[in-house]
Amino acid sequence: MQQRTFTEHNTATKTKQSSPSEQTTEDETTQETSCPECSGNIQLDAGEHACVDCGLIVEEEHIDHGPEWRAFTSTEKDSKSRVGSPTTNLMHDNGLSTNIDWRDKDAYGNAISNKKRKQMSRLRTWNERFRTRDSKDRNLKMALTELDRMSSALGIPKSVRQVASAIYRRAYDEGLLPGRSTEAMISSALYAAARQEGLPRSLDDIAHVARVERKEISRTYIYMKSELGLAVPNPTAQEFLPRYSANLGLSDETEQIARDMLNKMYEGGHASGKAPTSLVAGAIYAASLISDDRYTQAEIGDAVDVTAVTIRNRYKEIHDVYMSSLGDISF
DNA sequence: ATGGTTTTTACTGCGTC
DNA sequence: GACGCGGTAAAAACCAT
Q1: Bases on strand B under 7 Å from any protein CB
Q2: Most exposed residue of A6, A96, A204, A307, measured as fewest CB within 10 angstroms of its CB?
Q3: Does the CA dihedral A222-A226-A228-A230 come out positive or negative?
């Protein structure tokens, strides 16, 4: 079942990529259309669609948080997804599907024969099946494309993607989709899946690459979680550590010290109520002071998405806890 | 809605390069 | 003078009630 949809998705991908026009216009960082003012070229650069000739900025809102700047895996897929379908709407069939009246009358209102009636009944059944299957497939395909795009931008492994798509499928089957954007739903599924698999991403991380606001993702996520009864463990700071330390290029030693600190914090019950990311940031900073590969608070804050103030606060606490636990290590 | 907690924003002074 | 760092107050965001 799952397998089937994946292969379908792949073939669709292939056909789309073989279209020559899309291949040629797609570049890593630029995407061109024409300016409504002077019909010059529009370039997408750093999230702004700006006209090359007159400087007019079109679609300031339509920021494509494309993965170029952070894609460590298969970028081919991403370039495809950017020309893909829009993210909202398209929930149903856009009202273009066939409807067969349930009344067994012909166009003039006369009753129809027994044989016809049976035929119509069969037609209704199949029409219904095809229609729902079609729209489901379309929706799923779109969602999976989106999932792929976000996942590779965040470097999320396949196992998590599979869990995410399973969650999304369930959400679809339970009828949670209508009234909500696909994008928000698939983002939530990804968020939940990453946490379930012990490779959590912060809501901010997801929101960075998603095409909807963080707020909406979190709303959708809460809704989805309660409707599906998902058991999503709270992420621990330790789970965040490897990724951020890799991003920063910490030495193994430093990372180990940071992990130690985090363990101490959790054991001592000093971690409750604190955002896991803030703890990692504080621990990394503290650890970077002990071992000598120093990082500034700003650097760490940038990487972990936490302010320097928060780092200082966590750092102070960690310092106290770690000091008392080790005796007289000073830093 | 409310109140308590955490995090962010904005601003400060200090020391160092 | 720019930069990193430490602190503070107040606003904003978050959470449980």
Answers
A1: 5-10
A2: A96
A3: positive
State pLDDT tens for residues A36-73: 556 666 655 544 555 656 655 555 444 444 444 444 44
Rounded Cα–Cα distance for residues A90 and A139 (Å): 8
CB A13 within 8 A of CB A141: no
Question: Which residues of A spanning 237-296 put their CB closer than 7 angstroms to strand C?
Answer: 294, 296
Task: Judge whether A317 and A261 are in contact, CB under 8 Å.
Answer: no
Q: Which nucleotide, over all strands, has the C1' atom closest to the CA of A278?
A: B7
Task: Give whole-number Cα distances, A108 to A82, A104, A116, A166, in Å.
Answer: 49, 11, 15, 47
pLDDT digits (tens, 9 = 90+) for A110-145: 887 888 888 888 888 887 777 777 778 888 888 999
Q: Which residues touch strand B (CB under 7 A)?
A: A 273-275, 278, 305-310, 313-314
What would the DSSP string read from start to end of A84-103? Answer: S--SSS-SS-TT-S----SS
DSSP A120: H
Which residue is closest to C5 in terms of CA–C1' distance? A297
Instruction: Say whether pTM exceeds 0.85.
Output: no
Q: How far apart are CA A80 and CA A34, in angstroms?
A: 20
What pLDDT does A47 receive? 46
User: How far is it, in rounded angstroms, from Cα A102 to Cα A114?
Assistant: 15
Cα–Cα distances in angstroms (integers) from residue A79 to residues A26, A33, A87, in the given order = 7, 16, 16
* CA atoms within a 13 Å half-sphere pointing along the CA-CB vector of A169: 14
Q: Answer for the pair A78, A152: CB distance below 8 angstroms, yes or no.
A: yes
Query: Which strand C nucleotides have any atom less than 7 A from protein CB atoms?
Result: 3-9, 14
Measured in whole angstroms, the distance separating CA A82 from the mean position of its chain's CA atoms is 14
Q: How many CB atoms lie within 10 A of CB A37?
A: 12
pLDDT at A194 over 90: yes
Positive/negative CA dihedral, A81, A86, A92, A93:
negative
Closest CA to C15 C1' — which residue?
A: A273
